[in-house]
Write a structure and sequence with these properties.
This protein is α+β, with helices and mostly antiparallel strands and 434 residues long. It has helices at 22-31, 48-59, 85-88, 96-105, 124-132, 163-173, 189-200, 232-244, 260-268, 306-313, 333-338, 369-381, 391-394, 401-407, 425-428, and strands at residues 2-7, 13-17, 39-42, 63-68, 71-75, 107-111, 136-140, 143-147, 155-157, 179-183, 204-206, 212-216, 225-227, 248-252, 272-276, 279-283, 292-295, 319-324, 343-347, 350-354, 363-365, 385-389, 411-417, 429-433. The longest helix is centred in the middle third of the chain and has 13 residues, at 232-244. It binds uridine-diphosphate-2(N-acetylglucosaminyl) butyric acid.
Length: 434
């Protein structure tokens, strides 16, 4: 098992290149299965969730070739729509196979997907949308079965703004007969990204990025080339790390507009932020000040950045209040942060954070992906050594985080734990990478 070992106290400075957006990648990969021919996806992040999706595709007979460090070619012509249950259960985004298979074959059998443990993760809005298009949907013995003799476009009003349901319904509707209108749709930029790929494949999707999306079904789709948009949560994590360490960091290969909710909050906390074209420079020369944060669907403050933000605010001056309106159990990182000396009280979906001047390093464990990001931010400012376990969660969504932070001057190493009989901890950890 791997750990990240961080020795805190170094100011981050320099440039970091942000990769492609995880939550877009895990939607455009299955979207490519709707085509009759091969598609090329570029700017793919090298993360475990992408590797898992590629493994799911290969297990179903899809030819996936790596044609560059961040590019793949997907040829779905020999696709057998029987997904491997073990891999499907490893990630949430395998739910997109439902919409894809239903659209392409008129039936789908997909095990109920897994994903981060951050609260209840119902699929009722996905299923409501697929049923509106004419599918019979049941869940039995942990498998979702959907079948439709004819999939016919229909109006769908989402009761809650759901990224996954919006994309899943789009995926099913592009090959349906007639027009589907999704109202109260999610507006995240990766919904636009998926719509752009689908349109390049020959679909007719309009309105993505607004709360009403219209999809006019077409009989078939062809392969296309598509470059995935940058990952705003990876960028946000580096921006927060820069502020926490009172650093000076340029995050490159970003779309600054997508980061507006982050930029606004970090400015409020005392950071100086300059943006231009495809980069953002974040500097902070003093202790950040407390702010109030409430997560909301885009363009609100993203829930996925809430956890690293909590870590940053744990060393701010004053009392911050952070409310997660999206996930009811997304404060599991707080118990671990407490071990580093934070003063945080969680009441339901709200964390009340009394900022402390310093944190101290210890052994902590990432319980989910963004909890891991929070511990990394805390480790960068803590006195002494922080050893972060559960790195496999972090690597689901962050590409070489230790290398990128190392390039910015952080003292961070990824080490592999070796079961050692009586060795002290330092002998039991073998440093493997920079
Ligand atoms: N919801 C329902 N019914 C549904 C679907 C969602 O009630 O059928 C509720 C959820 O319980 C939640 C809210 O609607 O309260 C929003 O959920 P959404 O469907 O938007 O989330 P998701 O599609 O399951 C994606 C990301 C998450 C991210 C959320 C919100 C992927 C694979 N996951 O999840 O990403 O937090 O959108 O932006 O795209 C992460 O990257 O760390 C992560 C957890």
């Amino acid at each position: 098992m791997a750990n990240l070992v961080v020795r805190g106290g170094r100011r981050l400075h320099g440039r970091v290149r942000i990769g492609g957006r995880k939550n877009s990648a895990v939607a455009v990969i299955p979207a490519a299965l709707l085509a009759n021919g091969p598609s090329v996806l570029e700017n793919l992040p090298v993360i475990r969730d992408v590797d898992t999706y590629i493994a799911i595709l290969r297990a179903m007979g899809v030819k996936v070739d790596r044609i560059g460090p961040h590019a793949i070619r997907i040829d779905p012509r020999h696709l057998e729509p029987i997904p491997p249950p073990d891999l499907v259960k490893e990630m949430r985004a395998s739910y997109y196979l439902l919409g894809v298979f239903l659209g392409r074959y008129g039936y789908a059998e997909v095990p109920v997907p897994g994903g981060c443990d951050i609260g209840q993760r119902p699929l009722d809005q996905h299923l409501k949308g697929l049923r509106a298009l004419g599918a019979d949907v049941t869940i039995e013995h942990g498998v979702i079965r959907a079948r439709a003799d004819r999939l016919v476009g229909a109006p769908v009003y989402l009761d809650v703004v759901s990224v996954g349901a919006t994309i899943n319904i789009m995926l099913a509707a592009v090959l349906a007969e007639g027009t589907t209108v999704i109202e109260n749709a999610a507006k995240e930029p990766h919904i636009v990204d998926v719509a752009n790929l689908l349109n390049a494949m020959g679909a007719r999707v309009v309105g993505a990025g607004t709360d009403v999306i219209k999809i006019r079904g077409v009989p078939r789709l062809k392969g296309a080339s598509h470059a995935i948009i940058p990952d705003e949560i990876e960028a946000a994590t580096f921006m927060m790390a820069a502020v926490a360490t009172r650093g000076d960091v340029v995050v490159e290969n970003v779309i600054p507009k997508h980061l507006d909710p982050i930029t606004a909050k970090l400015r409020e906390a005392g950071a100086e932020i300059e943006e231009n074209g495809d980069w953002i420079r974040v500097t902070c020369s003093r202790r950040p000040t407390a702010v109030t944060v409430k997560t909301l669907p885009y363009p609100g403050f993203p829930t996925d950045a809430q956890q690293p933000m909590t870590a940053l605010l744990s060393i701010a001056e004053g009392t911050s209040v952070v409310t997660d309106t999206i996930w009811e159990a997304r404060f599991k990182h707080v118990d671990e942060l407490q071990r580093m000396g934070t003063r945080i009280r969680v009441e339901g979906r709200t964390a009340i954070i009394d900022g402390v001047e310093r944190l101290s390093g210890t052994h902590v464990r990432a319980t989910d992906l963004r909890a891991g990001a929070a511990l990394v931010v805390a480790g960068l400012v803590a006195e002494g050594e922080t050893v972060i376990g559960g790195v496999e969660h972090i690597e689901r969504g962050y590409e070489l985080i230790h290398e990128k932070l190392g390039q910015l001057g952080a003292d961070i190493q990824r080490v592999t734990e070796i079961p050692a009989p009586v060795a002290g901890r330092s002998q039991a950890l073998a440093r493997t990478q920079g």
